[in-house]
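=== Discrete structure encoding ===
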Amino acid sequence: MMQHDDNQLWSERYRVAAEDWVEKEASAALLEDCKSAVLAQSMAQLGDVPVAHAERTVKASDQWEDYVTKTVNARKAANLAKVQLEYIKMKAWEEKDANATRRAEMNI
């Protein structure tokens, strides 16, 4: 989770969180989009073997497990960054609503 200055405007907190989410989303998307290419490259490195055999070999490898784990962890990080972004948005709204309520109570 990101650290912030309590005096920092909510808009700035949102901007920082949004940039973090964009970076993490791009990383996750890249890993997901390259999955077929990585599989094909790994299969090609095995040489002239039947496709089903090559795919089974690659998908049973530690390298493939690492790639899939990295992809899942990147998506998790992007999702958590998005949750943080939404949290900041909600906290800003709550503060605005609380201030409006205080102003209305002062006018009573």
About this structure: The mean pLDDT is 92.
